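U., I forgot to send this yesterday:
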Amino acid sequence: MEIRRDFYLDKLIARKNNGLVKIITGIRRCGKSYLLNKLFYDYLINAGVNADHIIRFAFDSADDLLLIGENLLQIRKEKRRVDPEKFINYINARILDTGIYYLLLDEVQILDCFETVLNGYLYKNNIDIFVTGSNANLLSKDVATEFAGRGDEIHMYPLSFKEFMTVYNGDKYMGLSDYMLYGGIPLVVLRNKEDKVAILQNLFNEIYVRDIKLRNNIRNIGELEDLLNMLSSAIGSLTNAEKLRNTFKSIKNSKITSPTITKYLSYLEDSFLVEASSRYDIKGKAYIETPKKYYFSDLGLRNARINFRQFEQTHAMENVIYNELRMRGYNVDVGVVTIAEKDEAGKIKRKQLEIDFVCNFGYRRYYIQSAYSLPDEYKRMQEIRPFRKIDDSFKKIIVTKDIVPSHYDEYGILTVNIYDFLLDPQLLEA
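Result:
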């Protein structure tokens, strides 16, 4: 069954022949290779590109490595990467005329000196380069810097809910429940429910944790796993290294330091397993360094990490909304609105109200609250209170799981249900 990834395919098409190395990054198993070697390849063929002008090469494929004369046993024994000279000679032999050739290279970090090799191809007028990569260098979130400003990064997420529903056998209500429970890793989505849990747990332990350990030479893997458990149990909660250090000390009797925790958090972000959302003072127009909120790039992986024991729909829904906004290209912060009000004794006290998401994209900004349910007017007024303390004219939105039609209230605040929000990217513009 084919899962269309048109959102990312269109990005690749728009970047054709732009003189840069197109680099598809993202968490492992999110669909990078399928996007490049199946969906984009098929597009090129259907657009009239001759197959002999499309060179696909997977550096983790034994068949492809044999094509360039590599010795597989030697690579394994010597624990070395692929010989760049053998690869260059192979490519040069395939380029026979001045027409445009498309290089679709998978797992390019396995090629030794890959940055130099790819940068060299940029000086040739008839080569357009598209690559994917995982772990080591190309799993890093700052991958574009590897190409000294010559890289054009397309960051890929697991399936959005809209993509998920194109292959889900059921209605959107059951679909969202399954999506929040098992996530959007394509390999998992296409399997039956009996297999999903085992696959997710295996991916987490054998792929993601192992990659982070090897890449960063982590000796105390237990500390990293404990940190993952803490983040998994507190998605959408404000935290920082010092707070996590205190948790380690009280629960694990651990002497781990705050700098070590900060370093581990950066490893998790670099692997795209989690993302941090910073706090932003809306009135003061300034960022607050700590604490931050952490969200998982895939909820299925998060749930697998805690053996599906702790599934709170309120936090899961907030994580889904965050991922959707990030996939659409928004920078997403946690909003802080500082107000002064009198207490019961009549004294003026300062208080901070929180807005779940401050979303920025160019000149556009949205303020969004995630409200699992709005059962009464009291709850609704609680949710919109921070909005009413903001004196700018940017759109303010409540996303709820309640089945309600999209509507504006008397304060100009838009309320939408999460199903419409996830399935209709244009809804925010309405």
